[in-house]
Specification:
Elements (H helix, E strand, L loop, with lengths): L30 E7 L3 H10 L7 E5 L12 E2 L1 H10 L2 H7 L1 E2 L2 E7 L7 E8 L11 E2 L2 H14 L7 E2 L1 E8 L8 E7 L9 E11 L6 H5 L4 E19 L7 E5 L5 E6 L6 E9 L13 H11 L5 E19 L17 E3 L5 E2 L7 H20 L9 H26 L14 H8 L1 H4 L34 E4 L4 E4 L10 E6 L11 H11 L4 H5 L10 E7 L18 E2 L4 E2 L4 E3 L8 H4 L8 E5 L5 E5 L4 H9 L6
Parallel strand pairs: 1-2, 1-11, 2-8, 5-13, 11-17, 21-22, 22-25
Antiparallel strand pairs: 3-7, 4-7, 5-6, 9-10, 10-11, 12-15, 12-16, 13-14, 14-15, 16-18, 19-20, 19-25, 21-26, 23-24, 26-27
Helix pairs in contact: 1-4, 1-7, 7-8
């Protein structure tokens, strides 16, 4: 973590200096750059990013009267944990949360089908899949950590509660705040039903499956329902079931299935319990199911074990549905060449599915982590507005994959023994499917297709373990200036910057005449340099593209003072030297990043990583023309 760049400040370094001229008024503004509807995971993830840009005015509204306190999602994938590292609160989650290390499978005994027994255990996060754990923590806690990031950011952004979007219209003939939004007060803070008008450059609907924003742009959720009722509850309870503190998938012979998820705190746990089949024209609300029905069903499924519930913290009954919006922005079909998007949807507003794969909150945050930096690029004048077309193109495809995969998983979970296409194998179908889906449930199956943001000309053989289009896979390194062991990926904050990781070839020490020196000289002085092309007056040279270098030697064999000047930049108002740009292999631990990520030892390479942590390009160190051409598609000249 770096701070004091513009002078010493006492206190918590997570509290950034307030933006000059910041207004503390809680009044509703007449116009904003970005209006976000909804304080769920998607909305808060987006707001937390945009709060870091003082030049961008952001407003987030929420119909509830205050922050969430309990219930709803709880699973945090390893991909989301990697993202939380960029926001600065992954360590808090790791300390507080339950870690899912194993998943245990139970099914009916062969000779006594009325009783269940343990039939398998699977490691939940495969070795070296990520440096992060799969965790379980209350969604409300995630919300609060995002709210803390917002409040501590230069803009001191806080939500406007008791306010929701009633309607919006887009004027395609103007670029000056073309979205007219009607907001309605729904509880405190004024007369319920009172409306107020706000104009915005962009609106993002993170307002759930019944999204007003989606309806306003003509979007429709399309899909089907499984006609199966499930109950979910967070409880404090005693039980003779031996695996209450391990994630469990339990299948009974005739009574349905249970998914047990231990929760944070050591005592609380969640149960997803299969209840009744629904008729094709029936909704789950017609059954009038209550918490006692969920508990009774759980005790039938878990025989010979039982659960004695002491406190129900939260519960709900739902019907599985798999639906995908036909559009993620307001641009009519066939008009992408002539019209730029102004309104977007994210999270449940554009895709819904079962909660048992633990993807709802995670994919929703992935939506807006994708969108946030693109909005910032456009609003800062760094990129053309056409960049925003990539949001719908990238996230619609990933949402489609999510819905299809979850559709299969939900039906396999609900089918009784002997009624699935995977039955008959040595391993039960739900255990086999779970193992096959570990990359998906970890949030690591996302792979963006070739586009202006993801090159189809990458030299993949130079870094076989960093797949173009997939997230940058971190690995241990040693920081040269102070010999600190750390993860290379942890240098990337959620600050909208691109990362350029330069891996030196064999024998290169950064000294004059080497490939690394030549590469840095190009970036620092050549008129074709993408760093110079994207640089804006009054900012540090690395304000848009952050270069980091990795060498193969141990830190005792390298000299910081011999490194190219671009790797020892002077920054901030005092021109203080940045000592944190250079790394080397962690020989002491034996975890060699070159071996772990398939980096070519002879030639080295450069890896271009997007602000949302996905690999965009891989090139030889001397492929400077190709690097310039790639970034020229993204950044406007200064």
């Amino acid at each position: 973590m770096q701070y004091y760049i513009d002078g010493f400040r006492p206190g918590d370094p997570d509290v950034k200096p307030a933006a000059p001229g910041l207004s503390q008024s809680s009044d509703i503004p007449k116009q904003v750059d970005v209006l976000i509807a909804g304080c769920g995971p998607a909305g808060l993830c987006l707001a937390a990013q945009l709060a870091g840009f003082p030049e961008i005015s952001t407003m987030i509204v929420e119909p509830k009267s205050g922050p969430m306190e309990k219930g709803q999602a709880d699973g945090v994938s390893i991909r989301s944990m990697e993202m939380f590292q960029a926001f600065g609160f992954a360590d808090k989650i790791k300390r507080e949360a339950y870690w899912v290390n194993q998943t245990v499978f139970w099914r009916p005994e062969t000779g006594n089908p009325d009783h269940i027994h343990r039939i398998g255990v699977t490691q939940d996060v495969p070795d070296d899949q990520s440096e992060m754990p799969h965790t379980i923590v209350n969604q409300a806690r995630i919300h609060q950590l995002f709210l803390d990031v917002m409040k501590n950011a230069p803009t001191r952004l806080e939500p406007h509660y008791s306010l929701q979007v009633r309607d919006l219209t887009v004027d395609p003939d103007t670029d000056d705040h073309p979205v007219a939004v009607t907001l309605e007060r729904v509880a405190e803070g004024g007369k319920p039903g009172e409306t107020v008008k706000v104009r915005a450059n962009y609106v993002v609907g993170c307002d759930g499956a019944r999204s007003t924003v989606r309806r306003a742009i003509g979007g429709r959720l399309e899909g089907d329902a499984a006609h199966q009722a499930w109950g979910v509850m967070d409880i404090l309870a005693n039980s003779d079931f031996p695996d209450l503190r391990r994630k469990c998938l339990i299948q009974s012979a005739r009574e349905g299935n249970i998914l047990i998820i231990p929760r944070e705190g050591g005592y609380l746990f969640r149960m997803y319990v299969e209840l009744d089949k629904l008729n094709p024209d029936e909704r789950v609300s017609h059954r009038n199911l209550v918490a006692a029905d969920i508990i009774a069903a759980a005790n039938r499924i878990m025989r010979p074990y039982s659960i004695d519930v002491k406190e129900v913290v939260w519960w709900s009954v739902y019907e599985i549905g798999h639906r995908l919006s036909d559009k993620f922005d307001d641009v009519p079909a066939g008009e992408t060449a002539t019209r730029m998007p102004r309104v977007f949807t994210a999270g449940d507003a554009c895709h819904t599915h079962s909660p048992k794969a633990g993807q709802g909150m995670n994919v929703s945050m992935g939506d807006t982590f994708n969108l946030g930096w693109k909005l910032a690029h456009v609003l800062q004048g760094l990129s053309d507005p056409s960049l925003l077309h990539s949001y719908s193109a990238e996230r619609h495809l990933e949402a489609k994959r999510l819905v299809e995969t979850d559709h299969t998983w939900a039906r396999i979970m609900s089918a009784p023994p002997g009624e699935s296409e995977l039955d008959g194998s040595d391993m039960p179908r739900f255990q086999k499917q779970f193992i096959e889906n570990l990359e998906f449930t970890g949030g690591l199956a996302v792979r963006y297709e070739p586009s202006l943001l993801t090159s189809d000309q990458a030299a993949q053989l130079l870094a076989t373990g960093q797949i173009v289009g997939k997230r940058f896979h971190s690995a241990p390194v040693i920081r040269l200036a102070d010999a600190k062991p750390m993860q290379l990926g942890h240098v990337a904050d959620a600050d909208g910057r691109w990362r350029l990781y330069a891996f030196a070839g064999r024998g290169d020490t950064g000294a004059q005449g080497g490939a690394m020196d030549a590469f840095c000289a190009f970036l620092e002085t050549d008129s074709a340099s993408p760093i110079l092309h994207s640089h804006r007056e009054g900012t540090d040279l690395d304000a848009q593209i952050d270069l980091r270098a990795v060498f193969q030697q141990g830190f005792l064999s390298l000299r910081f003072e011999d490194m190219p000047s671009l790797l020892r930049p002077e920054k901030g108002r005092y021109g203080l030297r940045d000592f944190e740009k250079v790394f080397c292999v962690d020989h002491k631990s034996g975890q060699d990043i070159y071996d772990m990520r398939g980096i070519d030892r002879d030639a080295g390479c450069m890896i271009v990583v997007r602000p949302d942590q996905y690999v965009a390009h891989i090139l030889p160190l001397d492929a400077t023309i190709a690097l310039s051409e790639f970034f020229a598609q993204i950044f406007r000249p200064a």
